[in-house]
């Protein structure tokens, strides 16, 4: 059997795709794979902020079209880039194990942590979620809008004279950059910065009815990550979220209990509401939706 996998062309996207292929091969060595690189609108338009060119789904549409048309069999995405409404012909298959959900500050060598940054330090990020949580924690910081792949953004510390930038830890770890970059790394724990819903989780998207693929992908399923994805994406759907407003969510699981923390802000960051709801592990989606309702009521 041969599986054609669609992927964006960035180093991180290809690393993630190859990670999935390696995991599948451990259980199904007889399956052959071909990677097809697909350019998306989000890759082509690099000079504008994401919320100005269409928000979530920008890195996905062209890939989904090829899935629907049968040009590829499987697509590997960062789940945090996925809209909550995927085309009805498609679905997410099994969810593999989550990488680190946190965000990280990549800091100029002069500083080791967020606490050492001087007043008025300049931090690069193109995300409203990151921007307004940083400012909520340290309102003296200056935020500079940046975009691009991981390497490009790291280079901007020098080229744009920044004191640091914010990235997803998952990308840094998957690319093996923790010990390779000449900067200090400071992990932002959830009390400072809630991640994007499903950050660090990969989405394996296939066409409905492809039982042959489901049977193969089941071998890399991780139950904990699946439940976290359900709760966090239910919250995202419940607040009707895109790239225009700051949204964060994190589901923690302890035995048969789950705790979902959600964050929603106004578009200009003038108000941010953060709440936590606890429930049973078998009502992940319900808890996510309920939390969204509570927070929406408070923000409006």
The residue fraction in helices comes out at 25-40%
Domain module count: 3
Radius of gyration: 19 Å
Main sheet attributes: strand count, strand direction, barrel closure: 5 strands, mixed
Beta content: 15-25%
Query: What is the C-level CATH assignment of the largest domain?
Result: Alpha Beta
| Structure class | alpha/beta
Superfamily at the CATH H level of the largest domain? Periplasmic binding protein-like II
- What is the overall number of helices? 10
Could you give the count of β-strands?
A: 13
- The CATH architecture classification of the largest domain is 3-Layer(aba) Sandwich
CATH third-level topology of the largest domain = D-Maltodextrin-Binding Protein, domain 2
Describe the protein's topology:
Elements lengths: L1 E6 L3 H17 L4 E6 L3 H4 L5 H4 L7 H8 L5 E5 L11 E3 L10 E5 L14 E3 L3 H10 L4 E3 L5 H10 L4 E5 H6 L9 E5 L13 E6 L3 H7 L5 H16 L8 E8 L2 E9 L6 E9 L3 H16 L1
Parallel strand pairs: 1-2, 1-3, 6-7, 6-8
Antiparallel strand pairs: 3-10, 4-10, 5-8, 5-9, 11-12, 12-13
Helix pairs in contact: 9-10
């Amino acid at each position: 059997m041969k599986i054609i996998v669609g992927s964006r062309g960035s180093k991180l996207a290809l690393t993630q795709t190859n990670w999935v292929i390696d995991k599948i091969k451990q259980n199904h060595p007889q399956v052959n794979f071909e990677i097809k690189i697909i350019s998306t609108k989000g890759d082509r338009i690099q000079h504008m902020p994401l919320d100005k060119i269409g928000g979530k789904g920008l890195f996905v549409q062209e890939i989904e079209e090829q899935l629907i048309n049968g040009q590829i069999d499987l697509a590997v995405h960062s789940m945090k880039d996925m809209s909550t409404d995927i085309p009805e012909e498609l679905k997410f298959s099994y969810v593999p194990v989550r990488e680190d959900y946190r965000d990280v500050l990549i800091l100029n060598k002069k500083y080791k942590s967020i606490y050492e940054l001087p007043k008025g330090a300049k931090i690069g990020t193109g995300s409203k979620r990151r921007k307004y949580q940083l400012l909520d924690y340290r309102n003296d910081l200056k935020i500079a809008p940046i975009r691009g792949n991981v390497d490009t953004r790291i280079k901007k510390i020098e080229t744009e004279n920044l004191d640091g930038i914010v990235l997803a830890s998952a990308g840094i770890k998957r690319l093996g950059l923790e010990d390779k970059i000449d900067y200090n790394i400071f992990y932002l724990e959830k009390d400072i910065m809630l991640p994007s819903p499903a950050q660090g989780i990969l989405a394996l998207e296939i066409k409905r009815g492809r039982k042959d693929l489901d049977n193969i992908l089941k071998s890399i399923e991780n139950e904990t990550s699946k439940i976290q994805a359900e709760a966090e994406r239910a919250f995202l759907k419940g607040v009707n979220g895109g790239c225009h407003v700051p949204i964060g969510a994190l589901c923690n699981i302890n035995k048969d209990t789950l705790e979902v923390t959600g964050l929603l802000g106004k578009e200009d960051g003038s108000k941010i509401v953060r709440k936590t709801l606890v429930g049973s592990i078998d009502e992940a989606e319900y808890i996510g939706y309920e939390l969204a309702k509570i927070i929406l009521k408070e923000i409006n």
